[in-house]
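Q: Sequence in, structure out?
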Amino acid sequence: MEAKNQLFDHVAQLLDEVKAYAINDAASLEQFRIRFLGSKNILKDVFAGIKDVPNERKKEFGQQVNAVKQLAEQRFSELEAQFKQKETDNGADVDVTRPSQTKPAGARHPVTLVKDELMQIFIRLNYTVVDGPEIEDDWHNFSALGMPEDHPARDMQDTFYVSTEPPVLLRTHTSNVQIRVMDALRKSGKQPPVRIVALGRTYRNETISARAHCTFNQIELLYIDEGVTFADMKQTLLYLAQELYGEKTTIRLRPSYFPFTEPSAEMDVSCFVCGGNGCAICKHSGWVEIGGCGMVDPVVLENCGIDSEKYTGFAFGFGLERIAILKYKINDIRLFTENDLRFLKQFEHL
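A: Exactly. Output:
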């Protein structure tokens, strides 16, 4: 029994020691911390003696040891704050009325710069800017665009699926906005014209490299009305190219394939760096590929309740990162998503 009482007496002595411990500077405060709160503090050895305490007094013993620890923590916190304040008071005078150091203003992202420029171009052409969901169902992203489940064109776009039953996915292009706009037109009982431009983020399960990324931004244009022709599309694309890269820019259209346009074409612009003479940007061809375009496939119009015998239209889509890469001579698409201030700071005056 005497040994048990000695344990309780030792705890009481430690409590008195915590109260009376002389702490005059940061060094003595650190010694206090090591003794009572450090990784090998004395209280750990004391608490290990609980095995020798009768069961009916274990709770009491634990509470007394905990009281010593709590008092030590309280003294340490209070004195630490006092010493820090004293160091501040003894330091150089602080002018509290002096304005704080301001952080440098941010800059718009190069993709945002390109997006804003494109929006202004198409607003001047009387197009309406629209948006749509990034998480999309299969109908709006694929099937309504002429790509049923077994269509080989689906293999052109490696897709991130959110769920498979029913199919829900991250949109692979902004063409889903076209379908939603035409669906809304049908539900309202209205008919074309449709003049829209959609901008937004898209996703494809691709290997990330200097020239490809799993997420990127697209701009997509759709114009549907009576008597719309391929020549209308070509003139619109020429106007766009000259607004972006200068009035001397020319374009060419090469036959291609897209499941939702017929006929389809790839659009190239004359190299705005070398003027068509050949350089590293255009791979010495004199031309730079921008994006795809074509006349809206009648199947797509019919899927959205638009009379393909009466109405025709064209659509084209470009990657905003690709336009920014060409416009600002950027050599790695990964720079757009790394948020490196050294890269972004180059665009603060644009």
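The chain has two domains: 2-90, 110-347.
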